Amino acid sequence: MKLLVIYNPQAGNGRAKILLPQVRQYLNEKGLDAELLLTDRPAHAVELVAESDLSRYDGLIASGGDGTLFEVVNGYYQCNSEKKPPIGLIPNGTGNAFMKELQLQKSDWRKAIDIIASNHSRPLDVGRFVSQNQTHHFLNIVGMGFVTDVAQAAIPLKWMGNAAYTVATLQKLINLKAQKMVLEIDGKTIERDGVFVEVANSRYTGTTFLMAPKAELDDGLLDVVLLNNVSRLKLLRLFTSIYDGSHIKYPEIEYLQVKKVKVIEENPGMLIPDGEVMGRTPVEFECLHKDIEFFWAK
């Protein structure tokens, strides 16, 4: 198998750079002809993939965290190659939510390569969103509202690992405030005093948070998690329940499964797709049913 591997050496606070020689060696041991391209700046992976002739490869691999995978997927959609191979993941970043869908842990990069070497793939849904006249694609989840504030606060805390999101939530809790939100869902409009909205294709966010426990990767639907107005104290209790997905039992949570949704905020804010801060509300989402092939364990 000939692979194009987009490798982020800064992932995992530089851990990926240390692992690089071992990753190269194991790829060789598995008989994989891997061409590694290293990223050195934000959005570099998008450029590298978009400018590649993907028809030359049997697999396109993202090695890094969720942000690297997000960029690789977007480069895939920007690439003009007529034939495109399955996508795969070698996780070694700070945030690795999608690896949970593959039944992987952060230290399982060898197991991830084993999955790729098996050359077995399955079709997956892809989320598409349009914001500020730009189109993006995602495999995980896009948040807006309070969750974006938390994600931005967590960026300088990435050295803390998974605890970064917990600390950032506590920091931002003091400024918690609901706002008017309008959601246009498959032709129906609802208005809410909302704290945050998450639009999910997969179940996890931030590696450990089971934000959308009902999400399936091939059902043709996006899962919308809406938190309505809530007190600071109750949000703290709710926050701890996101680890096991039981937050959706709270009456302040609305859980919807949709094909398309548009979100309008009274105070337009930033979006947080797959851990990356970009775009702004209003934003339109659509599920692309089984739109890509992804290397998966048999």
Overall tally of structural domains? 2
Overall structural class, as computed from helix and strand content, comes to: alpha+beta
Q: Outline, from the CA principal axes?
A: globular
Task: Work out the helicity level.
Answer: 25-40%
- Work out the radius of gyration: 19 Å
CATH architecture title of the largest domain: Sandwich
How many DSSP-defined strands? 15
State the low-pLDDT regions, or none: none
Summarize this structure briefly:
The chain is of the alpha+beta class and 298 residues long. Helices cover 26% and strands 35% of the residues.
Task: Please supply descriptive tags for the structure shown above.
Rossmann fold; Tumour Suppressor Smad4; 298 residues; four-stranded parallel sheet; eleven-stranded antiparallel sheet
Q: In words, what does this structure look like?
A:
With 298 residues, the chain is of the alpha+beta class. It has 2 domains: 2-119, Probable inorganic polyphosphate/atp-NAD kinase, domain 1 (Rossmann fold), CATH 3.40.50; 134-290, Tumour Suppressor Smad4, CATH 2.60.200.40. It contains 8 helices and 15 strands. It has helices spanning 15-29, 44-50, 66-78, 98-101, 109-117, 146-154, 163-172, 232-241; strands at 2-7, 33-38, 59-64, 87-91, 121-131, 134-138, 141-145, 179-185, 188-200, 222-228, 253-258, 260-265, 270-273, 278-280, 283-295. Strands 5, 6, 7, 8, 9, 10, 11, 12, 13, 14 and 15 form an 11-stranded antiparallel beta sheet that branches. The chain has a 4-stranded parallel beta sheet with strand order 2-1-3-4, sandwiched between helices. α2 packs parallel to α3. The longest helix is centred in the first third of the chain and has 15 residues, at 15-29. 43% of the residues are buried.
